Amino acid sequence: MKSANNESARGVSPRRPVPSRIARAAGSLFGACLLATGVARAQPPTVIEVQAGDTFSGIAARFTGQARDWRKLYDRRSSGLPNPNRIQPGMRFELISEASGRRYLRLTGASESNPPAAASPAPAVAAPQPPAQAAIAAGVPTLPAAAETLVVGVLPNIGAAALMAQYDSLKSYLQRMNPQKVRIVLPASFKVFYDSTMRGDYDLAVAAPHFARVAQVDGRMQPLALYEPRIAGQFITLGDGAVAAPGDVRGKSVAFANPQSLVAMYGRQWLQQQNLEAGKDYEVKPARTDMGVGRMLLTNEVAAAIMSNGEFRGLPPEESSRLKILEVFARIPNFVVLGHPRLGTERLANLKSQLLSFLSDPQDGSAFSKATGITGIVEADEAQLRELDAFVAPTRRAMGGGN
């Protein structure tokens, strides 16, 4: 979650990168950052229990990498599943790997409250569209009509404990406003979140702006609401350190809190405008799981850091109090809440209305605003979303897709 900070009160005038130059730098930044952080798809367990919102194609994609390849793991007789459109929460599938190299998912059982669907003649199932469209295309396994849980995926841009504490308020609010239960999902990484969003695993997705634009363009996810204020891209240094200007990091290391974030893309471009080229004039260091950027600065492992205002706000107070915001180099669109088309026009309209009214709720909305610094939730503005078009192709490439 990105949240507000009062950089303007510091008298700092933000400078925005030139979009065309950003676009040229975006691909190289993403590729380098993904290599540096060692992003990889986590191996799923060989036995998977179906959860609310799961689809057969989505489960198969955990092993094949692509929802459109679900047929590789489906055999009507061997899988014990007459119709892949009819899976229910509680069913359990096991990945079977034969000596011949043949693999398929086999239905092994289900909880007593969720027995397997009765056998019925299987329809001619059409191959799914690209990953996020799996639940939209005719005949493709989709969300059960009677799903009891609204699944909300949230980009893990800060620590899981802090993020879950923030989104408990949204969960409570949505559960009061809707008959369904709500489940907040915090994926292990940006890559896992992106893949899950594009597969259609989430009913609602709280996404970074560049991810949201790709999910809208490629996955037909519908933007419902946009957080305010804009995200501040910040250049952070030690409060009493020797770095007084961007040029002072020449020959040193710069930490990036989330190397795959849009702020990182803007930050590297901004440093290029200061005649600082990554890998030549300074070393890029991603935050490690055992040491965040705050401690990397405090231990002099790096000379400066590129962070959003939300990431800076998420640092422990004993760290952030010893750091300073040297410059705000950009303000970019904030996070976007997207809805999956499978929910239907009326349901999406209701959820949109609830999101737009969330912060005015005295029970949960005010708590969310206080915890995150979010000052407004407004209707997603297509003009702001179009600002992100320069990042669509680099984001696809960086996340393992094509142009």
CATH architecture of the largest domain: 3-Layer(aba) Sandwich
Element-level helix/strand string: HEHEEEHEHEHEEEHEHEHHEEHHEHH
Q: Tell me, what's the shape? A: globular
| Beta-strand content | 15-25%
Count of β-strands: 14
Separation of the first and last Cα atoms: 27 Å
Main-sheet strand order equals 5-4-6-13-7-14
CATH topology of the largest domain, by name, is: D-Maltodextrin-Binding Protein, domain 2
Low-confidence stretches: 1-42, 111-146
What is the assigned CATH homologous superfamily of the largest domain?
Periplasmic binding protein-like II
Mean pLDDT across every amino acid position: 79
Helices, strands, pairings?
Elements: H1 19-37, E1 47-49, H2 56-64, E2 91-97, E3 103-110, E4 149-154, H3 160-177, E5 181-185, H4 190-199, E6 204-207, H5 209-219, E7 222-228, E8 231-238, E9 252-256, H6 262-273, E10 282-286, H7 293-298, E11 304-308, H8 309-313, H9 317-320, E12 323-332, E13 336-339, H10 345-357, H11 365-372, E14 376-379, H12 382-386, H13 392-398
